[in-house]
Every structure is written in structure tokens, then in C-alpha cells.
Q: What sequence folds into this?
């Protein structure tokens, strides 16, 4: 790929001024300014290539939109998880509060039962102590005070029953204490488990909240990328539309000037058989290759040779300027020269086949004996090559 020969352009302008082609030089400089206005960040060298770049941008925009939808779907899932965890934590908090209330109530019951057991134990202990310390006197006293032996036995049995009652009540209180203590232990275990679950859920919620924040950042970045791609698409559309409209108007003007077929035949007769080699001025071989690529595409070789033949036929014809530069930049003739596309191709570089075609026609190769061509839309009779009709 070659680069735009700025030294050549400067020398050409000076030469044109010396030749007093002031009108043409002004046009040439105007084309350079227009080319600067059409400077793209891509290396597209034709409307079709710009459309291809626009299509790529549209595909990337669609891909970004799908990624955005996927991110939003993930975001919705994470938010749902956060909501469910929050609900679970709320339920756990209620359960923890109820468990703590049960523990408090159980501790009170345990304390009251223990107090009753202590009191029962103290009473029983006092009665046992009294019996042991006054055992003989008591039995003698019971015997003396008893009205009869049956009364004595009843009193002895009452004393034994009282002792048995004390023992049973003490055992009952101790069993209650054991059960209450076991229940409290279960509540304490449940409380610890609930606290652990709550802490784990809170950690999960923190993790999910961070994930949600990260997803939101990705969505925001994705939306910025989509907006940038949309701007690129609109920019391409504007440039393509402007270039197509400009070239359409130029082609209309060309069509008006080129429909005088009798005049065309006279001009063709003049150049018939004249295919002598032409020595180009500095930079003109590159300029010729660039206009060939613009008009015939970067790879259709037969079409490139035909376009090159038309330009060289004009150089040899008395009806047109006698230099490649003047022929290419002649007003209302080659639309890429005026639209800025030619300058763009010269800046980004020409294809190898376009340069080869330029070299061939410079050496005398002529594939069509024509002075005009345009896009083949079926309205003009001529030789159709590579999408153009030559006449």
C-alpha cells in the first residue's frame, strides 16, 4: 500500500501556476480541502467499503445490545436473590426474637422451680433432723398421747407418709429442673444456629450487593459503547449519503455532456489506433492507479484496464487536456476526484492490481477504444465491463 504523495501535489500546483492554469489549480486545491473534510478514521476507499464498515458497526451494536439484555437478566436474578435473602433474614430475626423470649421465660421457670426445690429440700431436711434428734422421745410421746394403739399407729404412719411425700416432691422438682435445663440447652443451641444462619445470609447479601453493583457498572459501560456505535453508524450514513448524492449529481451532469454520440464517435475516430506509450509526470502513475481503483474497484482487473484505457485515450485526444492530472481533475468528469474519494484512496494506498493496470495502459495497452464510461444501468449502449458501460 502506498502513501499520499504530498511532495508531488506541491510540485504539481507550482507547475500548474507556471502553466497559467489558474482555474484548474484552484479546483485542484479545492479538492484537497474537500479531501480533508472527508478524512475518515477507517481506511475505506469506496462507498461500498464505507457501507461495509457501517454494517460491521451495526453488527457490533446489535451484539452489544444482546450483551446488555443478558446483563440486565443477570441483574434481575441477583436482585431477586437479594430480595429472597432479605426476606429470609427478616424471618430469622423474628424467629431469633421468639427464641430469645423463650429462653428468658425458661430461665425464669428454671429459677422458680429451683427455688421451690430448695425450699422443699430445706423443709424435708428440718423434719428429718428433728426425727433423728428426738426420735425416741417422739415415739414415746406419741405412745403416751395416743388414745389407743390404733391412734398411735395412725400417727406413726402419718409421719412416714410425710417423709415419703417430701422425698417425692423433691424428686419431682429435681426432674422438672432437669427437663427445664435440657429445654434451655435446646433453645440456646437453636439460638446459636439461627445467629449463624443470619450472619451467613448477611454475608451472602453483601456479596450479591457487590455483584449487583458490578453488573450495573457493566450495563452503564455497555450503554456507553452502544451509544458510541450508534454515533458511528449515523456518521457513516451521513458520509455515505453525502458522497452518493454528490456523485449522483456529477453523473447527471456527465450524462448531459456525454449524450452527443455523434461528437463521441468523431472523438473516438481521432484516437483510433493511437495507443502510443505515455511518459507520466512525477506522481501521475500513482494518481492514475488511484482513479482506476475508485472507478473500477480494487480488484476487477479487466474493469481497471478499461478505465485506464479511457483516461489514456483522453490524454491522446485533442478534445481533452493532454496530461493525466488535468484529465483526472477536469471539472464534472470523474466524480471521485470532486467528492474526496480519490484523495482518500491516495492517502490510504492503492491496490497492487490497480497499480499494475496503470502501468499497462501507460505502456500502450488499450482494451477499449472509448472516451467515456459510466455505471451500467442499461440506458446506454456500449461495452459492459465490471459494472461500467464504456462508449
A:
Amino acid at each position: 500500500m502506498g502513501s499520499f504523495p504530498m511532495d508531488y501535489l506541491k510540485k504539481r500546483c507550482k507547475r500548474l501556476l507556471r502553466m497559467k492554469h489558474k482555474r484548474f489549480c484552484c479546483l485542484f486545491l479545492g479538492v484537497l480541502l474537500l479531501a480533508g473534510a472527508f478524512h475518515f478514521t477507517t481506511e475505506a476507499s469506496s462507498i461500498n467499503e464505507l457501507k461495509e464498515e457501517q454494517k460491521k458497526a451495526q453488527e457490533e451494536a446489535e451484539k452489544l445490545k444482546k450483551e446488555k439484555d443478558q446483563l440486565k437478566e443477570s441483574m434481575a436474578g441477583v436482585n431477586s436473590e437479594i430480595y429472597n435473602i432479605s426476606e429470609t433474614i427478616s424471618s430469622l430475626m423474628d424467629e431469633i426474637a421468639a427464641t430469645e423470649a423463650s429462653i428468658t421465660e425458661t430461665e425464669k421457670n428454671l429459677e422458680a422451680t429451683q427455688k421451690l426445690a430448695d425450699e422443699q429440700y430445706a423443709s424435708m431436711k428440718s423434719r428429718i433432723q428433728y426425727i433423728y434428734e428426738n426420735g425416741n422421745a417422739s415415739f414415746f410421746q406419741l405412745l403416751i398421747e395416743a388414745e389407743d394403739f390404733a391412734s398411735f399407729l395412725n400417727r406413726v404412719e402419718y409421719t412416714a407418709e410425710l417423709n415419703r411425700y417430701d422425698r417425692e416432691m423433691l424428686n419431682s422438682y429435681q426432674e422438672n429442673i432437669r427437663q427445664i435445663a435440657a429445654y434451655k440447652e435446646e433453645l440456646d443451641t437453636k439460638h446459636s444456629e439461627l445467629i449463624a444462619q443470619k450472619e451467613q445470609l448477611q454475608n451472602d447479601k453483601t456479596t450479591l450487593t457487590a455483584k449487583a453493583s458490578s453488573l450495573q457498572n457493566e450495563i452503564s459501560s455497555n450503554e456507553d459503547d452502544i451509544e458510541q456505535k450508534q454515533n458511528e453508524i449515523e456518521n457513516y450514513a451521513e458520509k455515505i449519503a453525502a458522497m452518493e448524492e454528490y456523485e449522483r449529481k456529477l453523473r447527471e451532469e456527465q450524462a448531459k455532456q456525454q449524450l452527443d454520440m455523434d461528437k463521441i464517435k468523431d472523438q473516438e475516430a481521432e484516437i483510433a489506433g493511437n495507443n502510443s506509450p505515455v511518459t507520466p509526470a512525477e506522481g501521475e502513475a500513482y494518481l492514475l492507479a488511484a482513479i482506476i481503483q475508485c472507478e473500477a474497484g480494487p480488484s476487477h482487473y479487466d474493469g481497471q484496464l478499461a478505465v485506464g484505457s479511457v483516461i489514456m485515450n483522453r490524454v491522446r485526444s485533442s478534445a481533452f487536456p493532454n496530461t493525466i492530472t488535468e484529465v483526472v481533475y477536469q471539472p464534472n468528469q470523474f466524480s471521485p476526484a470532486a467528492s474526496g474519494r480519490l484523495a482518500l484512496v491516495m492517502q490510504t494506498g492503492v491496490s497492487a492490481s490497480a497499480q499494475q493496470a496503470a502501468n499497462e495502459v501507460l505502456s500502450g495497452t488499450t482494451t477499449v477504444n472509448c472516451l467515456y464510461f459510466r455505471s451500467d444501468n442499461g440506458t446506454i449502449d456500449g461495452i459492459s465491463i465490471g459494472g461500467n458501460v464504456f462508449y
